[in-house]
């Protein structure tokens, strides 16, 4: 019992100090929130409008629903991915290398793991803000089909945690800002285009499906689309477990490599 209580106390302190890092980043963000909101919120809405209202005019329906209704869950997932990725690469790199904020925080009782968790919390918060904006627009215009879509925010948070962790892991290796071009072009853009955001994955050549199934965004898009369609499938539970497991593994990997980068 004492061991369990000690573990709970450690986790409690870890969460509190990580939230302090989150709060610090939030205060800094308030000084530049206007251009940040434009990038995180307006851009996915433009994608939704251009493709849903533009391309959608030439596509009658997919799987029995209108094209714009089909892509809304995908835009929610991809917008949260991009928001988390940008914040946990360019933003985290600036705090870690340019401003040496991580080193300053380490002069306090906060540990590397707590900094990493705080950074992930902050990247997830940005992802949530972006994804929720698209979800609200979908609700307002009637593009959200089922009441089960109200559970989508859970997966926005999980998706944000995954891509915040993954992006922070990339940041731990990055020698400069230019390095992120490889990450966004090879990984993020590939997932954006091939994870079922704009068309059913089943339409891809069979050999490509093996690559799709290793993309975390595919699972997020698929679950959000199932919820939007009102389909209660066991896949929702399985994918929740898969995504949770991925986020935990990425957190520990990221904490390990950030520690090697920061503490010399």
Describe the secondary-structure layout.
Blueprint: H1 2-29, H2 33-54, H3 67-98, H4 101-105, H5 112-140, H6 152-173, H7 180-194, H8 206-212, H9 216-229, H10 234-262
Helix content: over 70%
List how many beta strands DSSP finds. Answer: 0
Give the structural class: mainly alpha
H/E element sequence = HHHHHHHHHH
What oligomeric state do these chains adopt? single chain
Describe this structure in words.
It is a single chain. The chain has 264 residues and is an all-alpha fold. The protein has one domain (2-262). It is built from ten helices and no strands. α2 packs across α5 (112-140). It is globular, with a radius of gyration of 19 Å. The two termini are 37 Å apart.
Features:
mainly alpha, about 260 residues, about 75% helix, globular
Question: In a nutshell, what does this entry contain?
Answer:
The protein is mainly α and about 260 residues long. It has one domain (about 1-260). The protein has helices at about 1-30, 35-55, 65-100, 100-105, 110-140, 150-175, 180-195, 205-210, 215-230, 235-260.
